[in-house]
Design brief:
This protein is an alpha+beta fold. The protein is 35% helix and 11% strand. The protein contains 10 helices and 9 strands. A hairpin with a 3-residue loop joins strand 5 (262-265) and strand 6 (269-273). The N and C termini lie far apart (65 Å).
Length: 362
């Protein structure tokens, strides 16, 4: 899947096998049987990599895929959707059109590109953000929810998403499903990995269409190399990188099994009065999902979002004079570990006030 910088092809498609976005472009190229004299598939390494001056001169975003016209001063088209639509138009007379008279094709591609593509990094990137999500667990759940939305649009008879005719929806969705099938099990997702109709379509299209089988092998080969290189060894929630610590009294409070005097609750944070207050006002602020945060030393970029929410909640609590806090402020404390006096291995903030504090603390 490479060519030299001196290629005589009309266009160069800069791409690598592991790219799911590039793979949709390759499906178009392969199915239309475009000769290498028209479109040559080239690794960005041929120009020194994505961040090289030569590549950035073609695509200032420094990303792939990229379709570049090789004639001097020729057209450069980034972004897989734009590339595919250009190829479908430019080579309309070659092979299938990919544009059946059915809006579900574009709808499937659109849902994929707007709601799945921005968060797919939750399956392989070392740390957030994943689109709008700063929590990997939530991003993984949203990805699976969006798959269920697409599942409702899949034709049950196949072999393609709309039935007998191949469409752009097939090209857009298929490569990402290779990612999903390979990666989600690493996060403990095994039962009903793909929704039923997507799973049936995926298996069937590989069986009956050699191009999809070829692309599946291209992407899988690269993903296996990622795996062999230890890509997921340190990614939170993958493999052994999970919270295996036992539940604490806080989990029982969150579940309502032990009563507490709640003073503030959000989707992610619970604040309640300490049963052994050290001042007139003493409130504990905890994350509802511990997510590995037994103490602050366990924090990582995975926890940036919840740590911010904990501090915001602590600030709201500290301003609440009805709880006994004064206008002069409050002390916000994190006891981290036994030496610091931490008693419950579930990260929590103490918001203490209603009297003058001294320094240094004991």
């Amino acid at each position: 899947m490479s060519a030299s910088k001196t290629t005589t092809a009309r266009y160069s498609l800069y791409d690598v096998p592991v790219s799911n976005h590039g793979a949709r472009c390759r499906i178009i190229v392969y199915k239309k049987q475009l000769p290498s004299s028209e479109v040559s598939i080239v690794s960005p390494a041929e120009l020194g990599g994505l961040k090289s001056p030569e590549y950035l001169a073609l695509n200032r975003q420094g990303k792939m895929p990229l379709l570049s016209e090789n004639a001097g001063g020729g057209l450069c088209i980034p972004e897989s959707d734009t590339i595919c639509r250009y190829l479908m138009s430019e080579y309309e007379s070659f092979g299938p059109s990919f544009l059946p008279n059915n809006p579900r094709s574009n709808l499937i591609a659109r849902i994929h590109d707007i709601y799945i593509s921005p968060i797919q990094g939750c399956m392989y990137k070392p740390s957030p953000p994943f689109g709008a999500f700063y929590n990997r667990k939530n991003a993984l759940a949203e990805l699976q929810r969006q798959l269920s939305v697409i599942d409702e649009l899949i034709d049950d008879n196949g072999p393609y998403v709309l039935g007998d005719e191949i469409s752009y929806g097939d090209a857009a969705l298929f490569p990402t499903m290779i990612f999903v099938k390979f990666m989600l099990p690493k996060f403990g997702v095994s039962q009903a990995l793909l929704p039923s109709k997507i799973q049936k379509w995926f298996d069937r299209v590989i069986e009956v269409d050699s191009v999809f089988s070829k692309v599946n092998e291209e992407v899988l080969e690269s993903l296996k190399k990622w795996d062999e290189a230890g890509r997921w060894n340190s990614i939170w929630l993958a493999g052994a990188n999970k919270d295996y610590n036992a539940d604490t009294i806080f989990d029982k409070i969150i579940a309502g099994q032990i009563p507490s005097t709640k003073v503030l609750e959000t989707e992610d944070v619970l604040c309640f009065k300490d049963i052994n207050p050290v001042a007139p006002a003493h409130v504990l602020v905890i994350p509802k999902d511990r997510n590995g945060l037994c103490n602050i030393r366990k924090s990582s970029p995975e926890h940036v979002d919840i740590l911010g929410k904990l501090l915001v909640a602590a600030g709201v609590v500290a301003k609440d004079t009805s709880l006994g806090f004064g206008s002069g402020g409050a002390r916000i404390v994190i006891n981290d570990g036994e030496d610091a006096g931490q008693e419950v291995p579930h990260l929590h903030l103490h918001v203490i006030g209603g009297r003058q504090m001294t320094w240094p603390p004991g």
